[in-house]
Amino acid sequence: MVGHTFIYNPAVRRLKEYIDSDELGDICYIYAVRVNLGRIRKDINAMWNFAPHDISIINYLLGEVPMKVGATGYSYIQDGIEDVVFMNLVYPENVL
Predict the structure, then answer these.
(1) Full pLDDT tens readout for the chain, 96 residues
(2) What are residue 3's phi and psi, to 5 degrees?
(3) 85, 96, 6: which is closest to 44 by C-alpha?
């Protein structure tokens, strides 16, 4: 159950209330960026280190899991360990 800690954050919970009440209108897409390298790990790439948190938040907000996932990573700092990753999650049309 990795990455689920942030769904208990009051700000994330409030955003979920806004979405569920339709106060924000139709959600067309969600865009997330992590730009801080943080601690550079030698055992895991950026996606496996950070993305579970973001994916968990988005799944919680939308009440669904993605039906398609694509990711491309690049190793700039260490060979073979991607420190930059671009990921695209596609959710069912009835969610967005």
Answers:
(1) 455 788 899 999 999 999 999 999 999 999 998 877 677 788 888 888 888 889 999 999 999 999 999 999 999 999 999 989 999 999 998 666
(2) 85, 0
(3) 85
List, in order, residues 6 or more apart from 54 with CB less than 8 Å away.
32, 34
Q: Which residue bears the tokens 């730009």?
A: 35
